[in-house]
Write a structure and sequence with these properties.
The protein has seven helices and 30 strands. By secondary structure, it is mostly beta strands. A hairpin with a 2-residue loop joins strand 16 and strand 17. The N terminus is likely disordered.
């Protein structure tokens, strides 16, 4: 669940954006192997790669190296309007390790929070898994399947989020739907999620320059008139102090550009086309404060395995999604998910429509998840196909308190649903975590997917 106060804005420094293709920096995608398993438990290694989101890339004039976007301001001569900007500006390749702190080795991906490069200091990153062609995104349909990965987040303190999730992006990043997008998925275009973020610089192949305003808290970010929306399945949003698994749904299918009320901004949060709150299962928030954390049942000071199962009503890949289950494996031991312990709620250990409805009622939250289709709608998004995203970020909107502390900050921490983790209410301020924890890192590895029960032992 993302904060109520504002849109999701991943933090970054001294980077710019675009959708034409530049030639000043070669683009070489880091290789990452994953495994596809069968019902008998046999797994085949697939050679894949990852690509950096276009929002982090250098954007310059097509005729040279003049920045099209500097700080949080567009160059007015190069970008006087959305279409001219898309024609004038070229999106270039990336130095994944040197500039962005992104490295791979075999089946392991490491994302470092702050990277001091030759020309800039970069904060955070977001990458997508590419298909075997090394150009288009790998698409996932996880109905009646499970998705498994190992994670080491022992170096992720309060205020940071090492996230692994799926969004309903176009396989080619929108290149075929929007001819002005010349870069496509090979350069990480086409992002969307249920927050309908306005900080994306190019949406539907056009620059988001209309109504652009720089952020008050982030000198390198801003927001434009348009947002970009789609269904989102948050498998893992976490740091060493807390974690949540959260489906979010929209009333639309695929990536959609929004404006006005449809974006669900501010006081219109529950009038938009997407469910920004989602239906989250955070063990700490659901009443078991001893389950996940340093030295707890799932010990975040060491690597462990996360298994997420997507159960359908008839146990087939064509059936309606009805339940999302979670379990863990650490030190050779399978650990069942925690159970809810909230006054007025039945006991649950998985995400179903019944769980979501009971949670919303117990916490007094608006149930936009049910309104927009609930678990079944999440399954419909998987049928369309979803893209795997992995990222590390800090939170200029709410200091990540919605994940690892008491939130909202003006609510009584003893009220049901307010306490989400053990971090202090003063933690997570971006300027603090960027200064105090620049070496913070999340490592994802051993990604597997296949029929339920096939990816772990």
């Amino acid at each position: 669940m993302f904060p109520t106060t504002t849109l999701l804005a991943l933090s970054f420094v001294a980077v710019v954006y675009g959708q034409q293709v530049g030639t000043l920096t070669p683009e070489a995608h880091p290789k990452l192997s994953v495994e596809q398993c069968t019902a008998g438990g046999s797994c085949q290694t697939l050679q894949r790669s990852v690509v950096l989101d276009s929002n982090w890339r250098w954007l310059h004039s097509t005729s040279g190296s003049t920045n099209c976007y500097t700080g949080n301001t567009w160059d007015a001569s190069l970008c006087p309007d959305p279409t001219t900007c898309a024609q004038n500006c070229a999106l270039d390749g990336a130095d994944y390790e040197g500039t962005y702190g992104i490295t791979t080795s075999g089946n392991q991906l490491s994302l470092t929070f702050v990277t001091d490069g030759q020309y800039s200091t970069n904060i955070g990153s977001r990458v997508y898994l590419l298909d075997s062609d090394d150009t288009t995104y790998q698409m996932f349909n996880l109905k009646n399947q499970e998705f498994t990965f190992d994670v080491d987040m022992s170096k992720l303190p309060c205020g940071l989020n090492g996230a692994l999730y799926f969004v309903e992006m176009d396989k080619d990043g929108g290149e075929s739907r929007f001819p002005s997008n010349k870069a496509g998925s090979k350069y990480g275009t086409g992002y969307c999620d249920t927050q309908c973020p306005h900080d994306i610089k190019f949406i539907n192949g056009e620059a988001n320059v209309l109504g652009w305003a720089g952020s008050d808290s982030d000198p390198n970010a801003g927001s434009g008139q348009y947002g970009t929306c789609c269904n989102e399945m948050d498998i893992w949003e976490a740091n060493s102090n807390g974690a949540a698994v959260t489906p979010h749904v929209c009333s639309v299918s695929g990536q959609v550009r929004c404006e006005g009320t449809d974006c669900g901004d501010g006081d219109e949060r529950y009038d938009g086309i997407c469910d920004k709150d989602g239906c989250d299962f955070n063990s700490f928030r659901m009443g078991d404060q001893s389950f996940l954390g340093v030295g707890k049942t799932v010990d975040t000071s060491a690597k462990f395995t996360v298994v997420t199962q997507f159960v359908t009503a008839d146990n087939t890949t064509s059936g309606a999604l009805s339940e999302i289950r979670r379990l863990y494996v650490q030190n050779g031991k399978v650990i069942a998910n925690s159970k809810t312990n909230i006054a007025g709620m039945d006991t649950f250990d998985s995400i179903t429509d019944d769980f979501c409805n009971a949670q919303k009622e117990a916490f007094g939250d608006t149930n936009s998840f049910e309104k927009l289709g609930g678990i079944k709608q999440m399954g419909s998004a998987f049928e369309t196909g979803m893209v795997l995203v992995m990222s590390i970020w800090d939170d200029h909107a709410a200091n990540m308190l919605w994940l690892d502390s008491d939130y909202p900050t003006d609510a009584d921490p003893s009220s049901p649903g307010v306490a989400r983790g053990p971090c202090p209410a003063t933690s997570g301020v971006p300027k603090d975590v960027e200064t105090q924890s620049p070496g913070a890192t999340v490592v994802f590895s051993n990604i597997k997917f296949g029929p339920i029960g096939s990816t772990y032992a």
